[in-house]
């Protein structure tokens, strides 16, 4: 059945009956201004965005002229108004009258007036400053006798500035701004779109339509082919239908060819579809189309001079494109051809621009599911969690969400639970049948690859997967994998990993289950615990089984009656994987057909005597009881990886010269391994040799010449006294671990390792010196040399400019000699040196972590130029030292994320800190600390919306006055708030001494809870809530409870909505303030999670917030007492009053009366400019 129109418009009926507006949008603008072109482009875009009827008045009235009745009627008859506030907008009395009328007509409707601040500052509109002030100077003269009119105009401007809209400065180009506006208007004009042939509400479709609009570009006069592709059930056809209904009236000929795949299969030819396409034109002559070639001739002849909209739905073969759409010359100017398919390759081959349909996000998926299960936008009370489980099962697939939702409509809770249990055992039949269409169209080999990935290799790196499959099927599998990707059955994720949608995987499992519904032994692949236990308990294995993969979440012991003789019947088994399974008996037989043998805790000392692993690609037997693998030499040309880690009984490795393609040999913690066969040194393709923790190895080959080796791990080989000479061709070795060995010197041949990036020699207690050539290794990034016999660091360490991590911890016992530890740059504790000053740091620009913990660093020990030199630093730990101040250049560490100065008893003031988007400051137990950073506007230029700020000053009682007021923290709060933190920062936590809640938290309560009145979500002027809690430890003996972790939970009406915590090392005894912030988005997310958002959307809501603190010390967790709590609803208007006190704070004045008195002082030009800056941000 085809949908067809010819010069006919289509409408989009709605399930509801909204008011019938004559115009969707009324455009208010000043035509003589610079925004004229912008308005023209916006109008054009809105008109092409079908059914957005836009009124644009192009008249130009003289000053003093009144608005015509027609214009007033147009305002009344419009659903929305878009007000383009340009620099000279206020110079037009007509525009100001029009704006006042818009508010008079529309103010009572929600979200109907949309301002665009086009090249103007929103603050200028609010305050009528700048060009708006100039305009009103003239108006004051012209309308001096009509004060009410002027008052009405000013009020209208303040109202429009107070609305949420768009600031043109926030967009790189006008096109981007226009597209955002059109998307918003579309969603308001058509909040629900319905198909003309369906009662289904289309959820989540608008964003897809916006993206398709870019590709369609209806205003362009060229011919365009667009391909919509994605896995089955994603809504490709639905999307195509909506596009067809929306734009078909723009075309002379419009045709929707439904489900080409099915029609083609039914008729065996495409003539039937060609006739559908041509029937409106040929009419009674349609009989002349009697074969496909004739149809092609008629299509080219009849449509090449017509503007055509053609939708070809669900193609699955290339010839369907050739016969139905050919090429662009078949259609007239302005034509659009849209194809839907599951196979991207068909589109690429035909050179068609593609649009991939992705799954729905969680919130949209829940709405679609609810619409089908409850006939409303959200679940019924008591069904939210169950609904989320079904939504999680569907993984964003619209088809599954609809089918599952409909099947549960008006069913009880018990039936829902039963249905969920059934889904875990067997997929829904309708979902399965729809998804299986893609599988049925595959070749036999592609089907096998698909099933192998679904059962054994999901998540495998693509190149590794290809290697395994190539050796499994003895042919190149690359093309087969690419076919599966193009047909949306496989996905390539980050790290080149091969993944698939969960429902596609479940479909694969069901395909194999149906091979033998009752007896697992006749299925080709097994993964389910019960099925695998069945075949070994009942000995029902057969040749049909190609693979077994058993991953148990916890260690489980198999029944004594397990019969491993079942392996003798599985002569075609290629994959065998057992994890977390303890089997009491040893196998006497393993199939020679195995390619993958991955058996952790293998129960026998030897492999079966009859087993010939010639086809094996991977041999992984972690924690096995193996003593040895085999005697002598075996030819294993396919073997790529051998992993026997933690096989503590393994004593030797056999001759491996017959494994020329081995790439990975991992034997860590094989503690009884005395030697490895010297033949490994001839393995030219070996990239990883890992022997870490093999403490019985005494000797190693005297020379290595392994071109491909990238990692050599000998760490923990505690009896190894020498390492080999390295050949001149070992340029690919990047990581070398020699830690814990007994080596006394480094061989000069290490100089050949020119590609070395990571060198570890910790705990080499006999090593006394480092050769100078190490300082010349230009690619070395990490050098770790702790706990060796080296007395002091060689000078070249401070000139290794490429180092990112340098760990040096000497063991000098010489009085007065330097003895540091480095982690990052320096490391762990050392004895107390005398007057130690760090040497130059100018060459260490790549170091990311500086750790100088407990080095007794005194005043001046840190070089003044640290902030200029170590520009890559992200982590700085200076805790446990004795300086009083720190270099001011620290503020230039633009990548700093963590700054720790805890336990610095003489530190009096924090240094200036950088304006980074994420920063943790730890200053616990600094007894002398009295001043925070100047000015400590820490986050004034955030670069991302994921910015975080935490500040901990536990037990810094110098910040508190005699009455328990923490004035430094109060100043910090003001400055952070004034800098616009609330609308931007997602994590904001402060903990500091204090027993009095600052006055700024206007809503205060004794005890652990308080009520906050939240404005409705529709109110755009508030940004979040700041909380302050006074908490103490309830200690019987308040002297020494060591606290490892402090935590604070915030509850909303009994539901946990926020958690924050700090790691601390001191004693938490006296009262502390805990200050944190919840953004408006946090609250919206919480309300949505607990199904409360619809109530809150339009109503003021009283919410009870309660708080529970805890501390964990010495492994025990206890509750903190919450004495008082306070809250502040942070709104935009707060900024003005905050700035009155912030300007004073920036000058380092401290007004201790701030706790009793509110903000005071008069404004200034400086304050006004700052306020404009901050207010401008809020409109972004």
From TrEMBL:
It catalyses: NAD(+) + H2O = ADP-D-ribose + nicotinamide + H(+). Its EC number is 3.2.2.6. GO terms for molecular function: ADP binding; NAD+ nucleosidase activity, cyclic ADP-ribose generating. GO terms for biological process: defense response; signal transduction. Keywords: Hydrolase, Leucine-rich repeat, NAD, Repeat. InterPro entries: Apaf_helical, C-JID, Disease_R_plants, Leu-rich_rpt, Leu-rich_rpt_3, LRR_dom_sf, NB-ARC, P-loop_NTPase. It comes from the Eukaryota. Coiled coil: none annotated. Pfam families: C-JID, LRR_1, LRR_3, NB-ARC, TIR, WHD_ROQ1. PANTHER family: LEUCINE-RICH REPEAT-CONTAINING PROTEIN, TMV RESISTANCE PROTEIN N-LIKE. This is ADP-ribosyl cyclase/cyclic ADP-ribose hydrolase.
């Amino acid at each position: 059945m085809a949908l067809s129109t010819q010069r006919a418009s289509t409408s989009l009926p709605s399930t509801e009956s909204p008011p019938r507006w004559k115009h969707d949008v009324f455009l208010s603008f000043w035509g003589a201004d610079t925004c004229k072109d912008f308005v023209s482009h916006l109008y054009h875009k809105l008109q092409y965005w079908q059914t957005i009827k836009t009124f644009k008045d192009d008249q130009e009235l003289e000053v003093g002229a009144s608005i015509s009745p027609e214009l007033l009627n147009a305002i009344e008859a419009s659903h929305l108004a878009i007000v383009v506030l340009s620099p000279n907008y206020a110079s037009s009395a007509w525009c100001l009258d029009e704006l006042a009328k818009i508010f008079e007509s529309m103010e009572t409707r929600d979200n109907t007036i949309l301002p665009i601040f086009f090249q103007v500052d929103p603050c200028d509109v609010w305050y009528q400053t700048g060009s708006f002030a100039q305009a009103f100077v003239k108006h004051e003269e012209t309308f001096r006798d009509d004060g009410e009119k002027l008052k009405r105009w000013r009020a209208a401007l303040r109202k429009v500035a107070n609305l949420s809209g768009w600031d043109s400065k926030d967009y790189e180009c006008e096109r981007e701004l226009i597209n955002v506006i059109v998307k918003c208007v579309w969603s308001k004009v058509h909040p629900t779109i319905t198909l003309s042939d369906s009662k289904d509400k289309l959820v989540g479709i608008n964003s897809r339509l916006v993206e398709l609009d870019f590709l369609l570009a209806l205003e362009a006069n060229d011919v365009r082919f667009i391909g919509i592709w994605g896995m089955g059930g994603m809504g490709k056809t639905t999307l195509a239908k909506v596009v067809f209904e929306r734009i078909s009236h723009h075309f002379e000929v419009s045709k929707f060819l439904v489900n080409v795949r099915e029609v083609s299969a039914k008729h065996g030819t495409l003539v039937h579809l060609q006739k559908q396409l041509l029937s409106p034109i040929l009419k009674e002559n349609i009989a002349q189309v009697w074969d496909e070639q004739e149809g092609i001739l008629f299509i080219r002849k009849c449509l090449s001079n017509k503007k055509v909209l053609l939708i070809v739905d669900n193609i699955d073969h290339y010839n369907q494109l050739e016969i139905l759409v050919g090429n662009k010359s078949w259609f007239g100017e302005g034509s659009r051809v849209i194809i839907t398919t599951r196979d991207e390759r068909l589109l690429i081959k035909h050179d068609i621009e593609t649009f991939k349909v992705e799954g729905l996000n969680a919130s949209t998926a829940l709405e679609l599911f609810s619409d089908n299960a409850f006939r409303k936008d959200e679940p019924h009370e008591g069904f939210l969690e169950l609904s989320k489980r079904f939504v999680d099962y569907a993984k964003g697939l619209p088809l599954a969400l609809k089918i599952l939702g409909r099947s549960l409509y008006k069913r009880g809770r018990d039936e829902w639970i039963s249905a969920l249990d059934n889904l875990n055992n067997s997929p829904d039949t309708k979902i399965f049948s729809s998804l299986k269409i893609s599988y049925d169209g595959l070749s036999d080999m592609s089907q096998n690859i698909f099933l192998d990935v679904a059962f054994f290799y999901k998540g495998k790196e693509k190149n590794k997967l290809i290697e395994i499959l190539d050796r499994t099927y003895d042919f190149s599998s690359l093309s087969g994998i690419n076919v599966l990707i193009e047909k949306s059955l496989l996905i390539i994720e980050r790290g080149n990993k091969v993944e698939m949608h969960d429902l596609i995987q479940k479909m694969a499992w069901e395909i194999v289950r149906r091979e033998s519904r009752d007896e697992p032994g006749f299925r080709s692949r097994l993964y389910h615990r019960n099925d695998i236990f069945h075949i070994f308990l009942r000995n029902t294995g057969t040749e049909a089984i190609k693979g077994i993969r058993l991953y148990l979440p916890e260690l489980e012991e198999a029944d004594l009656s397990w019969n491993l003789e079942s392996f003798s019947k599985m002569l075609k088994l290629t994959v065998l994987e057992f994890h977390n399974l303890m089997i009491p008996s040893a196998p006497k037989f393993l199939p020679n057909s195995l390619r993958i043998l991955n058996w952790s805790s293998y129960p026998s000392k030897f492999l079966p005597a009859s087993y010939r692993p010639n086809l094996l690609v991977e041999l992984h037997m972690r924690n096995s009881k193996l003593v040895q693998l085999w005697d002598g030499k075996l030819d294993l040309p396919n073997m790529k990886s051998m992993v026997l880690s933690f096989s503590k009984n393994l004593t030797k490795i056999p001759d491996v010269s017959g494994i020329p393609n081995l790439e990975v040999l991992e034997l860590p913690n094989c503690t009884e391994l005395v030697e490895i066969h010297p033949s490994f040194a001839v393995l030219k393709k070996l990239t990883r040799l890992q022997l870490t923790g093999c403490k019985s190895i005494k000797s190693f080959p005297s020379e290595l010449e392994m071109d491909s080796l990238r990692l050599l791990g000998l760490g923990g080989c505690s009896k190894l006294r020498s390492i080999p000479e390295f050949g001149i061709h070992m340029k690919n070795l990047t990581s070398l671990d020699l830690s814990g060995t007994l080596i006394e010197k480094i061989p000069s041949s290490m100089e050949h390792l020119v590609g070395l990036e990571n060198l570890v020699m910790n705990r080499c207690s006999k090593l006394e010196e480092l050769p100078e050539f190490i300082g010349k290794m230009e690619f070395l990034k990490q050098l770790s040399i702790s706990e060796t016999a080296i007395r002091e660091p060689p000078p070249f360490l401070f000139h290794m400019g490429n180092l990112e991590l340098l760990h040096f911890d000497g063991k000098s016992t010489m009085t007065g000699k330097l003895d540091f530890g480095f982690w990052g740059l320096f490391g762990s504790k050392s004895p107390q040196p005398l007057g130690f000053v760090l040497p130059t740091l100018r060459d260490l620009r790549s170091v990311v972590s500086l750790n100088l913990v407990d080095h007794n660093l005194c005043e001046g020990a840190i070089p003044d130029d640290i902030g200029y030199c170590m520009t890559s630093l992200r982590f700085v730990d200076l805790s446990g030292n004795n300086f009083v101040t720190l270099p001011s250049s620290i503020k230039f560490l633009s990548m700093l994320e963590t700054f720790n100065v805890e336990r610095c008893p003489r530190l009096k003031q924090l240094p200036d800190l950088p304006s980074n988007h994420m920063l943790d400051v730890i200053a616990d137990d600094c007894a002398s600390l009295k001043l925070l950073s100047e000015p400590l506007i820490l986050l004034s230029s955030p670069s991302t919306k994921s910015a975080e700020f935490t500040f901990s000053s536990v037990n810094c009682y110098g910040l508190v006055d005699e009455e328990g007021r923490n004035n430094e923290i109060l100043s910090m709060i003001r400055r952070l708030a004034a800098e616009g933190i609330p609308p931007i920062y997602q994590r904001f936590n402060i903990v500091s001494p204090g027993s009095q809640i600052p006055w700024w938290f206007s809503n205060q309560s004794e005890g652990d809870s308080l009520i906050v009145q939240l404005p409705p979500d529709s109110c755009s002027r508030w940004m979040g809530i700041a909380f302050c809690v006074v908490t103490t430890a309830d200690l019987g003996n308040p002297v020494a409870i060591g606290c490892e972790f402090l935590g604070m939970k915030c509850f909303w009406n009994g539901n946990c909505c926020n958690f924050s915590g700090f790691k601390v090392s001191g004693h938490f005894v006296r009262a502390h303030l805990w200050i944190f912030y919840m953004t408006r988005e946090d609250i919206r997310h919480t309300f949505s999670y607990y199904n409360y958002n619809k109530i809150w959307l339009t109503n003021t809501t009283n919410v009870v917030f309660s708080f529970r603190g805890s501390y964990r010390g010495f492994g025990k967790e206890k509750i903190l007492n919450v004495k008082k709590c306070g809250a502040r609803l942070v709104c935009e208007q707060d900024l003005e009053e905050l700035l009155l006190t912030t300007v004073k704070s920036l000058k380092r004045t401290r007004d201790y009366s701030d706790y009793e008195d509110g903000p005071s002082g008069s404004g200034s030009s400086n304050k006004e400019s700052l306020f404009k800056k901050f207010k401008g941000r809020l409109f972004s």
